[in-house]
Design brief:
The chain is mostly helical and 399 residues long. It has two domains: 14-140 and 149-194, Up-down Bundle (Growth Hormone, Chain: A); 210-399, Growth Hormone, Chain: A. It has helices spanning 4-8, 14-43, 47-74, 76-99, 104-114, 120-131, 137-166, 171-187, 202-205, 213-242, 248-269, 276-289, 300-328, 334-363, 365-387. Helix 2 packs antiparallel against helix 3 (47-74), helix 10 runs parallel beside helix 14 (334-363) and helix 11 runs parallel beside helix 13. The chain is globular.
Amino acid sequence: MANPYAALFRTPGALAFSAAGFIGRMPISMAGIGILTMLSQLTGGYALAGAVSATFTLFTALAGPQVSRLVDRFGQSRVLPPATVLSVTGLTALLLCARYGLPAWTLFAGAALAGTLPNLAAMVRARWSYVHRGSRHLHTAFSLESVVDELTFVIGPALSVALSTAWFPEAGPLIAGILLVAGVVLLAPQKRTEPPVARYGPAEATGSAVRSPAVRLLALLLMAGGVIAGTVDVVSVAFAAEAGAPAGAGLVLAAYAAGSALAGLAFGALRLTTPLPRLLVLSVTGTALTTLPFLLAGGIPALAAAVFAAGLFFAPTMIVVMRLVERAVPAGALTEGMTWAITGLSAGIALGAAVSGALVDRFGPASGFGVAVAAGAAALLLALFAAGRVGEARVEEGR
């Protein structure tokens, strides 16, 4: 049987834009935790550090879809460079203000401006959609992207913290900014695979992808999934610390990422004929059910096994959602639509971390897993509601 992933990269330019996208999306996972680590070291506290980091995350959620909307209207090569300059300017200002102890408001201003960074994960997915539109290879491409997302969120935060603690406090956010510039410099000139700008009349040009009910539902669904991921991140650390083995948190988080990555690769190799709405319900049902064993885990090995099982459904859900977004929006709004979905996931991760962290502080690690169970139930309800409203899309041979 031919390797479907090898077939992806036979397309001229595919390896180049995929590699550039991997480099350029690392800052999404590095910058927030890097800002938190930097400021906690420089100020000796977490309140200001957490607030500034949250400001950066909030503005990435607000600005990301708007940058992607401009990309859909004017093209990646025209929008990515100025958006990157704006973001890196804000990040540089934040680092300088932190280093020289300037007033707190300057930190928030820098973090807000830094949050305008373009979402290169959406840019790469848009390129895959362009070069493989109407082909069965698109399913495999989106599966690959879900695995790459997992890698960036496993490698990025650990790398950022390591740089800031072992080198100097600003090192994590600084390297994140350098990687963003490098990724955009490599990606923007690649015109062969850049999706063409769609031409619309005045009325159509003012529409946003988020006006689509399907996009809103799918973004909310990924937000619920993100809450589960954010909860696993926080509660695993607290659970391991309570068990007297803090290093065990790394094993748990690695198990979650491994489950998702393996499932994503396997899912992408399949040639499916099941309607996408049905696949959505099946994958989210698995997501919801696999949160229940969290409540029964009595030790780190049991928790690692539980989160590995949960991870098996995370990547397939992400893949199906992206396929549905791709079919729910016109080509001229594809990048924005995908960015809204990714924004929902990122917002959910932040929300899950915040809510579960507050519960853990008050009631202990076990209470935090209740957040994951509730989020799983919410995701299933959203999937059932969305399945009847996103159309009978079907993954077929040759499409």
